[in-house]
């Protein structure tokens, strides 16, 4: 096994001694919850647990393209017009300073929108106006307009498939704040080569994480896990300065 122990300190040592510089991250909603954005599946606070008022048969219908065609109202009732391999559509990583070209928004983002029928882009200002007025935006062709986030029943953006082979070339993988329950994203950690450490920072154990000899599990809060990682690397002050603003 590559690591001396299944600990963050051992990972830090691995990074320093092996000149590690091809790290991949795979993240989900859990990394944004401390910024006040709910995840999907946490029992009381998750989005899916709080959609009772929408009267859906399945909470996931709110992001189902067939359902949206028939009834786009529940999606717009959410009022969610906010703005690495991320499943997140909140653009927070970009805002936190990660360069755009480093991010694969596997489930799209709220940064743009278009007609679901003719695919014509729809202007940002119009979008904001319509949503502010509680109206469903429609294209000139009559089709409904939807933010460029990937709904169930839709293909992931080409950037996901173009970059999908990268995990195999990684020398460290960090999976953070995701239940790894939605494919094909959920398979990314399995594409990391054998003998390459994989770190999971999450409330619970998810996916196959922990099944390999060099898997490190930091079960708990993302921020606490990141702090622990930074401390082991000697980056604690830098991190606190960043977080302190
Ligand atoms: P989930 O809500 O399924 O999973 C979030 C994970 O993060 C869970 O395991 C939580 O326990 C954990 N978590 C929450 N807050 C945390 C914190 N502060 N610290 C550590 N862990 C925390 O969200 P995703 O895995 O991102 O897709 O969901 C994947 C996809 O399902 C989404 O991109 C979305 C959704 O349906 C589409 O809409 C296509």
UniProtKB/TrEMBL annotation:
The keyword Metal-binding applies. Keywords: Metal-binding, NAD, Transferase, Zinc. The active site is at 107 (proton acceptor). NAD(+) binds at residues 29-33, 39-41, 87-90, 178-179, 222. Its cofactor is Zn(2+). The keyword Iron-sulfur does not apply. Residues 1-236 form the Deacetylase sirtuin-type domain. GO terms for cellular component: nucleus. Its EC number is 2.3.1.286. Binds 1 zinc ion per subunit. GO terms for molecular function: histone deacetylase activity, NAD-dependent; NAD+ binding; zinc ion binding. It is an enzyme of class 2 (transferase). Zn(2+) binds at residues 115, 118, 139, 141. It catalyses: N(6)-acetyl-L-lysyl-[protein] + NAD(+) + H2O = 2''-O-acetyl-ADP-D-ribose + nicotinamide + L-lysyl-[protein]. Belongs to the sirtuin family. Class I subfamily. This is NAD-dependent protein deacetylase. It comes from Penicillium cosmopolitanum. The chain holds residues 16 to 260 of 360 of the full protein.
């Amino acid at each position: 096994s590559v690591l001396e122990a299944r600990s963050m300190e051992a990972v830090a040592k691995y990074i320093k001694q092996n000149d590690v510089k091809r790290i991949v991250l795979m993240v989900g909603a859990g990394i944004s919850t401390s910024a006040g954005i709910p995840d999907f599946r946490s029992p009381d606070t998750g989005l899916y647990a709080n959609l009772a008022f929408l009267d859906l048969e399945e909470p996931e219908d709110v992001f189902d393209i067939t359902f949206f065609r028939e009834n786009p109202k529940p999606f717009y009732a959410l009022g969610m017009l906010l703005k690495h391999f991320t499943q997140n559509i909140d653009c927070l990583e970009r805002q936190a300073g990660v360069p755009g070209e480093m991010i694969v928004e596997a489930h799209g983002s709220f940064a743009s929108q278009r007609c679901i029928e003719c695919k014509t882009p729809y202007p940002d200002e119009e979008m904001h106006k319509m949503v502010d007025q509680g109206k469903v935006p429609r294209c000139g062709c009559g089709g409904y307009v939807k933010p460029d986030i990937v709904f169930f029943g839709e293909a992931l953006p080409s950037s996901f498939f173009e970059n999908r082979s990268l995990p195999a070339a990684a020398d460290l993988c960090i999976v953070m704040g995701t239940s790894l329950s939605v494919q094909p994203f959920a398979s990314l950690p399995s594409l990391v080569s054998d003998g390459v450490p994989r770190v999971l920072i999450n409330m619970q154990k998810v996916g196959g994480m922990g099944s390999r000899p060099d898997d490190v599990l930091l079960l708990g809060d993302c921020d606490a896990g990141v702090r622990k990682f930074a401390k082991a690397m000697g980056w604690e002050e830098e991190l606190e300065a960043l977080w302190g603003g």
